[in-house]
Amino acid sequence: MNDIQPTRRKQAERRQGSETKILDTAEAIFAANGFNGTTMHQVAKAAGADTALLRYYFTDKDGLFDAVLKRRSHEVNAIRLTALDAYEASAGDAMTIEGILEAFTRPAFDLIAADEGWQNYAAIVAYINSSRGALRQVMSANFDVASQRVIALMRRAFPHADEREIYWGYHFFTGAFTFSIGQTGRIDVLSDGKVSSLDFDAICDRLVVTLGAGIRELCGRR
Amino acid sequence: MNDIQPTRRKQAERRQGSETKILDTAEAIFAANGFNGTTMHQVAKAAGADTALLRYYFTDKDGLFDAVLKRRSHEVNAIRLTALDAYEASAGDAMTIEGILEAFTRPAFDLIAADEGWQNYAAIVAYINSSRGALRQVMSANFDVASQRVIALMRRAFPHADEREIYWGYHFFTGAFTFSIGQTGRIDVLSDGKVSSLDFDAICDRLVVTLGAGIRELCGRR
DNA sequence: GTCTATACGGCGATAGAC
DNA sequence: GTCTATCGCCGTATAGAC
C-alpha cells in the first residue's frame, strides 16, 4: 500500500495545516466579535490566507462557523458522556447532584484551562447560549444529548422531586455554567481584581458546591 | 406661562410618538438579531420611518443602541436601589441572602412579565452580559452601581465569609439571573414544554430559593 | 420633523489563473 | 491547494428638499 505519493502526502499535510490555522483564527475572531461582527476578509487576512480559500474549505460563512463549533463540541461531548456513564456506574443509587455536576463540568473546565483555543470556543458557546437568534439551533443539535443525559441522572438523584423542579434546577445550572465559561471579565472588574474569571479550577469547585446545594434545596432533599 | 404654542406642542407630541416608536422597534430587532445583526434600514422600515430620521434623533447606530438600553436601565435601577434600601432598613442584621436576591430580582421580573418591550430589553441585556465585545462597557456603566450595592449587602449578610466567596456567589447568581431573563426557550425544548422560560413568576421564586441556598452553602453559614 | 436621493465603503461570493 | 481580480449588493452615513 504505497499509493500515497510524497507530493500528495505533502499536499494533505499542507491542507491540514491551513485548515487548522483558519479554524483557530476564525474561532478567536468569532469569540471576540460574534458571528455578525466577524467578516470573512478579517479571518482570511489574520490567517494569512484569502477569502476564496476559506470558501474552498468551508463553502460559506455559516459553514465556517459550524466547522469551528463542531470540531470541539464533538470532542467535549464524548468526554462528558463517558464521565457521566462512569459516575452513574460507580455511584448507583448513592448518586449526588454534586457528583453529576462534577462529571459534567470538570472535563470542560480542564480543557478550557489548558488551551487558548478552548477558551475562545467556550466564549462562543456562552454568547450563543444567551442569544435568541438562529444560531442557537446549531448548538441545540450539538448539546441536547448531553443535557438530557444530565437531566436523566438528576431525576434518578431526586426520585421524589416534581419533574418541573428538576428542569428549573438544570436551567439555573446552565445559566451559571455558561456564564462561567464565557470569560467576560465582569467579576474581575466588580471585585477589583480579587477574583479572576480565568481561574477555572476555583470556578469549577465553587460551581459544583453552589449549584449542588441550591438544586438540592429546590428539589426538596433532606 | 403660555409660551408653548399649539403647533409647537403638536410637534413635540409627534416627535415623542416617533421617538418612542423607533425605540420600541429597534429594541425588538436588537433583541432578535443582536447589535451587528440589526441594520438601520430594517429598523426604519419596521418603524414606518426613514434611516435619516433615526440619525436625526440618535446620531448613529451606537447612539440608537445606547438610547434603547438607557431608557429602561435607568428605570429598573432606580426601582432596584429603592427596594434594596427598603429591605436593608427593615431587616437590619437579620438580613438573609434570599431577601437580598428577592429585592434585586422581583422588580425586574415584574416589569418583564407585564410588557413585551421589557422582554425585548431583557433579551438584549442577557446577550450583552455574555459577550466579550465592546458592547459590554455600556452595560457596565449602567449596572455596576446596583451590582455593588448587592455585593455590599451580601457582605453584611455573611460577615464571616471570605470576601472572594461573596464575589463567586454573586457571579453564579448573575449568570443564572441573566440567563433567566433572556427567554431563549432552551428549557422549553429540553422539558418538552413542561416548563416555560416565559413563566417569570415561577422563575423568580425558584431563582431566589436555589441561588439563596447555594450561596449560603458557599459562604459558609449554618 | 420628515423624507428623497445618493455617496462610498465593505461585505459575501464567484470565475478563473497558477 | 492557493491566489488575483472583480462583481453586485447592502451597510452606514450625508446633503438637501419639503
> Biggest sheet of chain A: strands, sense, closure?
none
Principal-axes geometry of chain A comes out as elongated
Structural class of chain A: mainly alpha
Q: Please, what is the oligomeric state?
A: homodimer
Residue stretches of chain A low in confidence (pLDDT < 50, at least 5 long) are none
CATH architecture of the largest domain in chain A: Orthogonal Bundle
CATH class type of the largest domain in chain A = Mainly Alpha
CATH superfamily of the largest domain in chain A: Tetracycline Repressor, domain 2
Number of helices of chain A: 10
Q: End-to-end span of chain A in angstroms?
A: 65 Å
Helix content of chain A: over 70%
CATH topology of the largest domain in chain A: Tetracycline Repressor, domain 2
Report the portion of residues of chain A in β strands.
under 5%
Radius of gyration of chain A: 20 Å
Number of strands of chain A: 0
Structural write-up:
Two copies of one chain form a homodimer. The first copy, chain A, folds into two domains: about 1-60, Homeodomain-like (Arc Repressor Mutant, subunit A, Orthogonal Bundle); about 70-220, Tetracycline Repressor, domain 2. The first copy, chain A, is about 75% helix and about 0% strand. Chain A has ten helices and no strands. Chain A has helices at about 5-35, 40-45, 50-60, 60-90, 95-115, 115-130, 135-155, 165-180, 185-190, 200-220. In chain A, helix 1 packs across helix 6, helix 5 runs antiparallel to helix 7 (about 135-155) and helix 7 packs across helix 8 (about 165-180). Chain A is elongated and about 60 Å long. The model of chain A has no long low-confidence stretch (mean pLDDT about 95). Chains A and B meet through helix 1, helix 6, helix 7, helix 8 and helix 9 of A and helix 1, helix 6, helix 7, helix 8 and helix 9 of B. Chain A binds a DNA duplex (18 and 18 nucleotides) through helix 1 and helix 3.
